[in-house]
Automatic annotation (TrEMBL):
Keyword Signal recorded: yes
Record's protein name: RHS repeat protein
Keyword Acetylation: no
Residue numbers spanned by region Disordered: 21-141
Keywords: Signal
């Protein structure tokens, strides 16, 4: 790292190349690349949705249904699949680290979610606060 005295008493800080960061944007203002010690690239479809990312730790691809909802993601760690009800609400996802189920009341308002991982579970309220945890099967609503 180098320090240099600049005009008006300002200090210019020069970082080694490995510590420098930068972002690259397309004509729509979307991030398409990032340099931060390593380089990553983002890929968009004609509708402007993020469909992929390439970076040093591996590639990620995203899939959308005909309604434009995110259906899933594939990455080095494993796949994620999103689930929707007949009203189009997200009701859960299945992924490499565990499953998530979203809970709604009879009026369609979010009541929270339950996340399962291994033999344990955690329950969150509609504001995302942890309200319960345990092992085995979570208690019914």
């Amino acid at each position: 790292m180098r320090l240099a005295a600049g005009l008006l008493g300002l200090t210019l800080l020069a970082l080694p190349a490995a510590a420098q960061t930068g972002r690259h944007y397309d004509s729509a203002g979307r991030t398409v690349g990032r340099t931060e010690g390593s380089t990553s690239q983002r890929h968009y479809d004609a509708a402007g949705r993020l469909v992929g990312r390439s970076e040093s730790r591996g590639d990620t691809t995203r899939r959308y249904d005909s309604s434009g909802r995110l259906q899933g993601r594939s990455e080095q760690r494993g796949d994620t699949v999103r689930h929707y009800d007949s009203s189009g609400r997200s009701v859960g996802r299945t992924e490499w680290r565990g499953d998530t189920a979203r809970i709604y009341d009879s009026s369609g308002r979010s009541q929270g979610r339950i996340e399962r991982s291994g033999d344990g579970w955690r329950r969150y309220d509609a504001q995302g606060r942890l309200v319960g945890r345990g092992t085995g099967t979570p208690p019914a609503q």
